[in-house]
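Z., the sequence and structure:
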Amino acid sequence: MRLLIYGGCHALILKRLIDELGPAHLHQVDLLINFQLVASGEQFPYERLKDYDVIIYSPIQNKGIYNTTFLDEACAAANVQAIRFPWLEWHGYATGADKAQFWGHHSWYYPDLIAIGRQFDNLQSYIAHVRDAFPPRDYVTQAMAFTTRRLVEQELAFECQVRVSTFINDNFRERRLFLIPDHPTNVLYKNVVDQIEDLLDTRLIESWPSDLPELQPEERTPILPRIVAETGLSFSDSTWRSAIQPLGSMDLNAFLTLHFQAGHCADDRAEGAAGVVLATANRQTWASPVEPAVGRPGPAAVSIFDQVLMRRRPSAAGDTHFIGEVLATLSEYGAPQAAQRRLGGPYRFRTDDWSFRS
C-alpha cells in the first residue's frame, strides 16, 4: 500500500513507526511536512494524489491556499481515500504552561510561576508554596475542561475519522499520554495507528515492542503536584527535560528554581544589576571559592554538563577567568563531587570551560 502522510511533527512520527515497525516491503510511506511546504511557497502537489492509495493528514484552516479543505476536495475528485487526524495537543498535564523563550530556548514553561516568584525573597518558601498551591483547584478544573473541549471541537469541525479525545479522557489518569502539550507519548500514537489500521483494514505495524523508547524524548514538562492531586492521576512524573539541558533530566525543584530566578533576573536588569545566567560546564573542570572558608577550603571539582545558576561578574578584557556568584546547582545527574561541595557564593571559573544562557 502506498501512503502519503502530510502534517507536522506528528506526521513524521507516524511515518517512522510504520517504516521501522511495519511489515517489511509491504507499505511505501512518503512524508510531506506542512510547515516546510508553506515556508517554501510551493503549491501542494495535487498531481501526485493519483499515485497513492490513501492520504493521511492533519487539517489546516488558517494558511490560505494551504488550507486542507482544498485537499479534501482533491482527494474526493481523485477517488483517493483521505484519513484526517486532529492536531495532537492537550494541556491537561500542564495547565497554564505556554511555549516561548525560556532561558535561551523556545520551550514550555509557566509564565505565572515567574510572576509568583517575584512575590518571594526566599527560594525555598517559593518552592513550598508552588508545590502546595499552584495551580489553584478551580483553574485546573476549568483548564482541563477547556483543552478537552477544544480538541473535541477540532475533531468535529474537520470531520476527523481518527479521534483521540475519548481515549484521552478515558486513559489520562492511568498512563501518561503527553510528554509536553503537543508531543504525545507512544501510548497515544499507538491509539492513532490502531484507528488508521481499522479504517484501512490493513496492518501497518506488526507488533509494538514492550521496550519501545519514546520517539519525541527531547522535551518533557513536569506534572506539578497540584495537577496530580486535582485530576486524580494514579501516577506522578515531575521530571523536566528540554534543550536547555545537555544531558538527562532536571527534578521539579530545579525547574522551579529557573522560574524563580527568571522573575528576579528581570528585576535585576531593571535595576542595572549583573544578570543571572544559566551556566553549563563544557568539560570536566573546577571552581575556586573567592573567599575560602571552612567547608570550602579550595578548588571544587565540577563534572561535564554540570549546570548552575550564577550571577556573572564582568571580566577584564583578555581575562581567562571570571567570577560568578553561584545561586543554585541544578544538575541531578553527574556532578557528584560538585553537588557534595554544595557550590554557593562567589567562585572563580575558567571562561573557556562554560557556556551560558540567559
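DSSP finds eleven helices and 15 strands in the chain. The mean pLDDT is 89.

Let me know what you think.
H.
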